[in-house]
């Protein structure tokens, strides 16, 4: 079986392309996963094929990456409008990183919204590989009625519902065809000395030789050939499928590519797991592509026994089935197989670095509908994060509630639907509160005496403490300068412990940071003093001093790396400034052509707005990662509102 992924932005007709390709010679067999990955098996030219129709939303890029991990080649579907080329940028970035041989298919050419050369030029801004036209359109007025193959120099006229008809190259297209063919041959000659010599000697190379060279350079991932058509009308589908059949590399090349990318012994690489999901009454289903021999139910894979092997088409298990290299199958009761991963018989190998998904930008607290579901929710989210690497599950610092980090609102909605339909857990979501802190603005001193008589031994401790603001980022510090044993040495650790306890909650209701405490005097009693008494005296004394130290609210500030196509860079300074952030600078992204990386400091309270604004300003393409940088003071009405809201929330709970 040969396997390819069809990927690209939403509304570019990917699913229609797969449907038409699968129906060229029979009836395809289709299955779908809850994550939007559709798997279509079909036969073409007496060969078994598997097409992975990757989900289109940018929030599902993790599943696109994983599909490429199991693919011999891919088809990138793009729009025929030059201004929409930027929407393909994330997919070209993934294709380049994965080194997957790619055919670019410009779909919906029956409704052209620009010149084909302008489309290719706009896409070339995001591709390191040369995008090389293999066909040109034949026009009649504003309509595209056929295409001309630049290698065979044969022209085809589209016919609705039928195979295209072979025609002579129209005079109106002859000059364009000659120019485009010369450009094609010049680029191909860069990878073939024989062709270069033929061109220098002004000899016309035969078509068979050119097809062989084209096949080799695609298998070697040297160029990205460009084909055109309209899947909804069936135009260009046969040519696209023939290009895949003759030019896409075999499964052995995929095995070699994966072994090289992950430094695993190619001879030991048996399979790759690339997708997983949960089904009611069945559990975890893992999609696997065989790369070696000997896989069957009960055989060792990934260090444990492989569970039931199921057909993707009908979901039926058959213990007699032995997948051969290239086959794609579903495995159940194989929970030991992580996704994605490279699999030997005895071990699980981490996938290549390029499969790392974008950092989730949307953080939400999930609240179960009933107390009964609280424990169940935690376990279920852990399961789902195993099958969806775009999802991160944490706990909110202040409440311990389930905090999910999703790629965006569509991703979050799909997660909630899965919880409801598969696991019967109803949840609502809310925005988590930023983690605020407080400190003091001025030093103070306090003398605190703790005395308590309870009958028998009493409690006595007397401390004199100096409280001062520390420089930002230094945290809590404790010193002592007592003399003459007025506070015995064995009680000083208790004084420090009490001071630390007082830092857990300051006068504004938040944890206190960047404060230094010094014990400089005190008294003790030979009978009634104890560690507990000095701890209590220190805690109460520090609390009193904090209330006199002009408490200041501190907000978290995050260092963000914002990744966007260069065409959107001009709007980013305004976006960050509007969120009270600070742009630190930007550079070209060396790992992705046509992309920039902006570095900025953004308040924690603005991260949700940054995600939303960035999504809107870049048509869902831009994304950012963040790391905590520091806390900074927050004053005025905004600070007062946060303190009041925090107090109200505390009272309600």
TrEMBL record:
<feature type="domain" description="Translation elongation factor EFG/EF2">
    <location>
        <begin position="433"/>
        <end position="550"/>
    </location>
</feature>
<dbReference type="InterPro" id="IPR014721">
    <property type="entry name" value="Ribsml_uS5_D2-typ_fold_subgr"/>
</dbReference>
<dbReference type="InterPro" id="IPR035649">
    <property type="entry name" value="EFG_V"/>
</dbReference>
<protein>
    <recommendedName>
        <fullName>Elongation factor G</fullName>
    </recommendedName>
</protein>
<dbReference type="Pfam" id="PF14492">
    <property type="entry name" value="EFG_III"/>
</dbReference>
<dbReference type="InterPro" id="IPR027417">
    <property type="entry name" value="P-loop_NTPase"/>
</dbReference>
<dbReference type="InterPro" id="IPR005517">
    <property type="entry name" value="Transl_elong_EFG/EF2_IV"/>
</dbReference>
<dbReference type="Pfam" id="PF00679">
    <property type="entry name" value="EFG_C"/>
</dbReference>
<keyword id="KW-0251">Elongation factor</keyword>
<feature type="domain" description="Elongation factor EFG">
    <location>
        <begin position="552"/>
        <end position="642"/>
    </location>
</feature>
<dbReference type="InterPro" id="IPR000795">
    <property type="entry name" value="T_Tr_GTP-bd_dom"/>
</dbReference>
<keyword id="KW-0342">GTP-binding</keyword>
<dbReference type="Pfam" id="PF03764">
    <property type="entry name" value="EFG_IV"/>
</dbReference>
<dbReference type="Pfam" id="PF00009">
    <property type="entry name" value="GTP_EFTU"/>
</dbReference>
<dbReference type="InterPro" id="IPR000640">
    <property type="entry name" value="EFG_V-like"/>
</dbReference>
<keyword id="KW-0547">Nucleotide-binding</keyword>
<comment type="function">
    <text>Catalyzes the GTP-dependent ribosomal translocation step during translation elongation. During this step, the ribosome changes from the pre-translocational (PRE) to the post-translocational (POST) state as the newly formed A-site-bound peptidyl-tRNA and P-site-bound deacylated tRNA move to the P and E sites, respectively. Catalyzes the coordinated movement of the two tRNA molecules, the mRNA and conformational changes in the ribosome.</text>
</comment>
<dbReference type="InterPro" id="IPR020568">
    <property type="entry name" value="Ribosomal_Su5_D2-typ_SF"/>
</dbReference>
<dbReference type="GO" id="GO:0003746">
    <property type="term" value="F:translation elongation factor activity"/>
</dbReference>
<dbReference type="InterPro" id="IPR047872">
    <property type="entry name" value="EFG_IV"/>
</dbReference>
<dbReference type="InterPro" id="IPR041095">
    <property type="entry name" value="EFG_II"/>
</dbReference>
<dbReference type="InterPro" id="IPR035647">
    <property type="entry name" value="EFG_III/V"/>
</dbReference>
<keyword id="KW-0648">Protein biosynthesis</keyword>
């Amino acid at each position: 079986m040969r396997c390819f992924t069809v990927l690209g932005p939403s509304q570019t007709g990917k699913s229609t392309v797969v449907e038409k390709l699968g129906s060229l010679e029979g009836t395809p067999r289709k299955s779908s996963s809850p994550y939007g990955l559709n798997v279509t098996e079909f036969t073409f030219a007496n060969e078994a094929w598997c097409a992975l129709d990757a989900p289109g939303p940018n929030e599902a890029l993790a599943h696109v990456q994983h599909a490429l991990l199991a693919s011999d080649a891919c088809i990138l579907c793009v729009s025929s409008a030059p201004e929409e080329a930027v929407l393909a940028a994330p997919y070209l970035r993934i294709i380049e990183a994965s080194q997957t041989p790619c055919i670019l298919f410009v779909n919906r050419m029956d409704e052209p919204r620009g010149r084909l050369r302008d489309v290719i030029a706009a896409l070339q801004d995001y591709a390191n590989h040369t995008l090389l036209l293999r066909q040109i359109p034949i026009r009649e007025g504003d309509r595209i009625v056929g295409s001309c193959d630049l290698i065979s120099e044969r022209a085809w006229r589209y016919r609705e519902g039928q195979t295209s008809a072979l025609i002579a190259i129209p005079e109106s297209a002859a000059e364009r065809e000659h120019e485009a063919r010369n450009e094609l041959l010049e680029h191909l000659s860069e990878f073939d000395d024989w062709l270069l010599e033929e061109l220098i000697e002004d000899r016309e190379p035969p078509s068979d030789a050119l097809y062989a060279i084209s096949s080799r350079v695609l298998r070697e991932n040297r160029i990205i050939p460009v084909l055109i058509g309209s899947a909804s009308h069936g135009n260009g589908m046969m040519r696209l499928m023939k290009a895949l059949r003759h030019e896409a590399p075999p499964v052995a090349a995929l095995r070699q590519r994966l072994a090289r990318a992950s430094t695993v012994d190619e001879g030991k690489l048996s399979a790759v797991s690339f997708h997983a999901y949960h089904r009611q009454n069945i559990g975890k289903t893992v999609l696997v592509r065989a790369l070696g021999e000997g896989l069957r139910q009960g055989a060792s894979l990934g260090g444990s026994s492989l569970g039931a092997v199921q057909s993707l088409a009908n979901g039926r298990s058959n213990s007699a089935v032995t997948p051969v290299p290239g086959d794609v199958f579903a495995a159940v009761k194989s929970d030991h197989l992580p996704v994605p991963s490279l699999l030997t018989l005895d071990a699980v190998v981490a996938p290549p670095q390029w499969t790392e998904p974008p950092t989730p930008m949307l953080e939400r607290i999930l609240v179960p509908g009933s107390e009964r579901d609280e424990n169940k929710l935690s376990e279920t989210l852990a399961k789902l994060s195993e099958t969806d690497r775009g999802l991160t599950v944490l706990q909110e610092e202040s409440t311990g509630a389930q905090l999910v980090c999703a790629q965006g609102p569509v991703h979050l909605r799909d997660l909630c639907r899965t919880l409801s339909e598969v696991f019967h857990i109803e949840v609502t979501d809310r925005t988590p509160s930023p983690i605020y802190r407080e400190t003091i603005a001025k030093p103070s001193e306090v003398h605190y005496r703790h005395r308590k008589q309870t009958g028998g031994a009493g409690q006595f401790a007397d401390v004199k403490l100096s409280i001062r603001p520390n420089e930002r980022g230094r945290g809590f510090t404790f010193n002592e300068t007592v003399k003459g044993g007025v506070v015995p040495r064995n009680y000083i650790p208790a004084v420090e412990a009490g001071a630390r306890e007082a830092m857990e909650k300051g006068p504004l209701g938040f944890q206190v940071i960047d404060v230094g405490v010094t014990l400089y005097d005190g008294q003790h009693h030979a009978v009634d003093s104890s560690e507990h008494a000095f701890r209590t005296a220190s805690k109460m004394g520090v609390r009193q001093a904090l209330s006199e130290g002009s408490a200041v609210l501190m907000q978290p500030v995050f260092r963000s790396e914002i990744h966007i196509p260069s065409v959107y860079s001009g709007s980013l300074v305004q976006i960050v400034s509007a969120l009270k952030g600070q742009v630190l600078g930007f550079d070209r992204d060396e790992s992705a052509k046509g992309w920039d990386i902006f570095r900025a400091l953004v308040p924690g309270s603005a991260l949700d707005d940054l995600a939303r604004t960035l999504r809107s300003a870049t048509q869902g393409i831009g994304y950012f990662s963040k790391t905590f940088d520091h806390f900074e003071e927050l004053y005025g009405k905004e600070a007062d509102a946060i303190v009041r809201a925090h107090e109200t929330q505390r009272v309600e709970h």
